[in-house]
Amino acid sequence: MPRRGRGVILLRRALARAFLQIGGAPGLHLMAALALALACFLAGGLGLFLANLEGNLLEKHGHAQFRIYWKPGADMAEVRRQWETIRAMPGVDELTGLTPEESLESLRSTMDEGYDFPRPAVATTLPPKALASFAVRGTDTSPARELLERLKALPGVERVRIAPAQLDVAQALRSLSAAALGPLAGALALAVALVAYLAARLCLEGRRAEVELMRLVGAKEWFVRLPWVVSAALTSVAGSLMGLAALAALRLVLAGRLYGPPLWIKLAPMPLEETAAIVALAACMSALGGLLAARR
Amino acid sequence: MPRRGRGVILLRRALARAFLQIGGAPGLHLMAALALALACFLAGGLGLFLANLEGNLLEKHGHAQFRIYWKPGADMAEVRRQWETIRAMPGVDELTGLTPEESLESLRSTMDEGYDFPRPAVATTLPPKALASFAVRGTDTSPARELLERLKALPGVERVRIAPAQLDVAQALRSLSAAALGPLAGALALAVALVAYLAARLCLEGRRAEVELMRLVGAKEWFVRLPWVVSAALTSVAGSLMGLAALAALRLVLAGRLYGPPLWIKLAPMPLEETAAIVALAACMSALGGLLAARR
Amino acid sequence: MISAVHLSHAFGGHKALQAVSFRVHKGEFAFLTGRSGAGKTTLLRILHGQLPLQAGKARIAGYDLASLRRGRLPLLRRDVAVVFQDFKILPDRTVAENVRLPLEVCGLPDGQIARRVDSVLAVLELERAANLPCAVLSGGEQQRVAIARAMVAGPKVILADEPTGNLDRDMALRLMDVFKQFHAHGVTILMATHNHDIVAATPQARVLNLEAGFLGQAGGACPAGGAA
Amino acid sequence: MISAVHLSHAFGGHKALQAVSFRVHKGEFAFLTGRSGAGKTTLLRILHGQLPLQAGKARIAGYDLASLRRGRLPLLRRDVAVVFQDFKILPDRTVAENVRLPLEVCGLPDGQIARRVDSVLAVLELERAANLPCAVLSGGEQQRVAIARAMVAGPKVILADEPTGNLDRDMALRLMDVFKQFHAHGVTILMATHNHDIVAATPQARVLNLEAGFLGQAGGACPAGGAA
Ligand SMILES: Nc1ncnc2c1ncn2[C@@H]1O[C@H](COP(=O)(O)OP(=O)(O)OP(=O)(O)O)[C@@H](O)[C@H]1O
Ligand SMILES: Nc1ncnc2c1ncn2[C@@H]1O[C@H](COP(=O)(O)OP(=O)(O)OP(=O)(O)O)[C@@H](O)[C@H]1O
Ligand SMILES: [Mg+2]
Ligand SMILES: [Mg+2]
Q: Is residue C222 situated within a structural domain?
């Protein structure tokens, strides 16, 4: 028998052994897969929640708003030119300019339906104004403060208000989720690893004698260990896919409920790379568990 | 030797065996406890989150608001008497009446600092109004609709607006959290049970021969099983306490950050009964695992 | 002390015991012989309550196996000790821990346990190994641990299944002397064995010869069969 | 084929082998005798690479144990088969599965495996049990499974550790005939045993007598000692 032919037979046999191991203790492997599925479901679920929280926070709170007021009765042509200047300033995302008439209109729209102000009397007393949105990054507020000074220095500008509460909320939520994410991610990775290791150990515990015996009758080390590595990896891939599928189904159901009147919250699916990373992590941890458990 | 004395010796020995089993495989028991700690940490953490979410939702969104407008220039004495009538209606939690002057004042307060309306001109055009808050329970909206009809029928009332968006948000969030809580609680209970069972099985796998042998040399069934039940329960009590302690620590840290400017979110601790329930559940599941694993 | 009437046992289709009848009196010493697979271990396992009684009747040490309730099985096993053919010792426990097990589970105080274990280890020449884990013992040493464990609690009946297979002839004969001492103190002994030397060296014993599940007569002993 | 020079082995403080030297030539049949605990199993385990070489030299089937790399140990074990004193069979696998294991791990095609397994089971009178799980076998049947597994791959050397302890005399002698057939085909055999009958029935074999870790000379064989 040529050496090559035997190698192929051995490889086939090692892989067949992996499947036989699963088939030989289907309950145990199912339980292991289920445990992993649950771990992945929980890990993925928390990750999804945090990622979406972060996303929603960024959208709603990652900006500071400046309100810039000109003197009532200022020249609107001059004011419009200054709006362009502000729009070009670094860090300014968006600028909405409002003439006194537009201010009145927006004020009226916040009033109860059917009510109207005595228009000319009010309009002439309102100042032209602009709402500038400024993106806040990190916890450093000095760029925002600088911008405030620059806006105040514009000719014709009477007052500039920064919405400080909003700025603080954004920063508080950001630092909070940053603080919570680290420990949570750590705890979850540990949980997945532990479950995978426990499951692999359990699968192996009953077969230690077989592993030992195979060595005693002349099996090469790779032939002894490969089935453990493969079956552990297969079990955990199946388990993590199950968990992530359940998570995806939950997300679909929730997304349907959340993205509709009146909440309009968008629940983004987990990115494909993250899904793949979780599956790969679970497979690697389990394969490692198999490799270690089958060691001498 | 009297029968009684032997019974006491046996009981002592069975308990000693429980501790010896833990001491004999400290790594395994530590790992089992850790796995349980993580499961409890995650389960408790999600429970805590959901309970607090529910609490915050109830406080902010569990109410529908009615806006009741009288005709501009209505007799304020008559209007005030009607405010009292509404306050007494069933389901009405709170009523805030606003005279035209008060309406103008509240409008002004929403305006930018430093601006003032031309007062008499505006005030005479505003209607007296009242904001009534109505507690929404469950998903049944008919009591709210009934109330709406009763309010509309009041003499002198021109229009009644219900804030439908707000009512719907409250109900959407309630039904959402109800829908999410069930599957999540189920998944977590399953996870705890699985981890406990896996750990108990693993502890036992290496000792099956001993259990069998004890029976063969004349041990009574209770003496064979008691050590397994006790050690499994001890391990899981230790584990779940560890997990809940970690959770309590996390809550303290988070609560400090959340309940302060600018968020002022209150993070209530887990109720003592729930904590006890989780510990007891984990202990029972493990004890059951021990009992089953040591069966014939 | 031990009696069987028309005892039969089948595993699936394979008849391991066929209508076996015999009687071993209190204080008697009997060998159970027969070629490999004849059903010797099966018979001993039935008598120890490890296998259910399929057909026939059996009594041992005053217990009727047909009507024995589960809860009383431990009591039977305290009176009837077995030396298992495959030893059944715990490899990760020390010799002393293995030997003390039957005393521990019946609630004997620690002091008495230690004394009894020490003396039985001395008799079986295992003192040196007392605190070694059984996994490291030689085959013969492990077999002696199994014998020590069966003897330590002072049972009324000892069922020994091939207790000398891993022992050299000198050690086997020395051990037979120990069994004979127990026998002299009134213990009933039923020993399955292949070893003709020890059968020959024990003239006071009767020989029950199992052949393919049937009980023949050998060793010039009293006729087997008949109700207990 | 097998040679040992001043081989010593100690477990903790206990000296199990003390400067043992001997030589078994290619195609020779040798018995290893000695009382329980003399070190027979220890010696066989060293020769099979299960215990490290602590002191002295040893060669077997062309492999020098002192300089053997880990990766080549499987090759040694394909040439040198062992009948383990405690059988080391997998109780939840069938007889056939246990016996085919050495052929499986060396990559023999399935057809050849089936043929070889069938023939070795026939030789050892185990056909009836081929598809039974080993847990249900009698002691003697299990021992024969262990022997079948050692023989099935056609090794150059067979190290047999007490292979007849659970067999009756007839079966033991029939099995010795099988060993002798292998021997006649050029296989080198080193057999640890307590059984004087089979030693007496094998006049062509040399006897190496281990006593308390020392190798004495017995059976009128060629003098032991000397480098390989
Ligand atoms: N659970 C079982 N299922 C099927 N067959 C069994 C079972 N247990 C035992 N046997 C068979 O019953 C027969 C009798 O077995 P037993 O162990 O009683 O023999 P024995 O006389 O003790 O033999 P030995 O001297 O080899 O130990 C054997 O052929 C064995 O294979
Ligand atoms: N790992 C170990 N640690 C301590 N002592 C050991 C270890 N392995 C073996 N021994 C001791 O070494 C001695 C020799 O054991 P070995 O198994 O070689 O004897 P043997 O000649 O095969 O005896 P038997 O005929 O009873 O099988 C025994 O006393 C045994 O207790
Ligand atoms: Mg038997
Ligand atoms: Mg030995």
A: yes
